Amino acid sequence: MNEHTIVPRAGILGDGFACACGSVLAGRMAAELHATENGLCTVCLGSGEEQVVPGLNRPCTACAGSGRRKEQITWQLAHAEAEHLITLSMVRAVVSGFDGPFHLSEIADTVRAGLDLPPGRLPVGPRVRDLLLELQATGEITMLSAPDELLGTDLVLYRDPRWQRARTLGL
Ligand SMILES: [Zn+2]
Ligand SMILES: [Zn+2]
């Protein structure tokens, strides 16, 4: 259990935050500063969770659910490295090998294997997903899967979406 756990607190002076150590923090900036000083993730403020919509939490993506600043920084560097290492042309080349529909996980696994990366070393999945969405935006591939979960009216979760190359759709 961490001695510093920052939680939102509605106060007389508007919305603020309170820490388990007794500090009262006026506003998001003060809360993030207190988090930094105490080695907590500045996104989830040490809780290790983020709220997707009210009532649905998932592990904080910034710190991989650890709640710690150290992991947040490691993960930030890993994201930057993945961005540098995994390129659009690489993903396009992998996709060109699939005549039929393919899952995000298949492309991510192929890219990971091609780079000889152990699982969990870099955020390959999120990076590959971003690049597939780029290919989708330019019309090179089409998303086939229906959303796995609908959260409210405008937020949709895809666990492992499926795409197909536009040219192989026979249109
Ligand atoms: Zn504190
Ligand atoms: Zn976090």
Task: Please tag this protein with its features.
three-stranded antiparallel beta sheet, 35% helix, alpha+beta, binds zinc ion, 10 strands, single chain
Strand order of the largest sheet: 1-2-3
- SS content category: alpha+beta
The total count of helices amounts to 5
Shape: elongated
How many angstroms separate the termini?
57 Å
Radius of gyration: 20 Å
Ligand roster: zinc ion
Q: Give average pLDDT, whole number.
A: 87
Number of strands: 10
Largest sheet: 3 strands, antiparallel
Strand content: 15-25%
SSE string: EEEHEEHHEHHEEEE
Low-confidence parts: none
| Helix proportion range | 25-40%
3D structure, described in words:
This protein has 171 residues and is of the alpha+beta class. The chain is built from 5 helices and 10 strands; from the N terminus they run E-E-E-H-E-E-H-H-E-H-H-E-E-E-E. The longest helix has 17 residues, at 69-85. It has a 3-stranded antiparallel sheet with strand order 1-2-3. Strands 6-10-7 form a 3-stranded antiparallel sheet. It has helices at residues 28-37, 69-85, 88-95, 104-114, 124-137, and strands at residues 6-11, 14-19, 24-25, 49-53, 56-59, 102-103, 141-143, 149-151, 155-157, 162-165. A hairpin with a 4-residue loop joins strand 2 (14-19) and strand 3. The mean pLDDT is 87. 23% of the residues are buried. Bound molecules: zinc ion (2 copies). One zinc ion is lined by residues 4, 19, 21, 23, 34, 38. One zinc ion binds at residues 41, 43-44, 48, 60, 62-63, 67, 72.
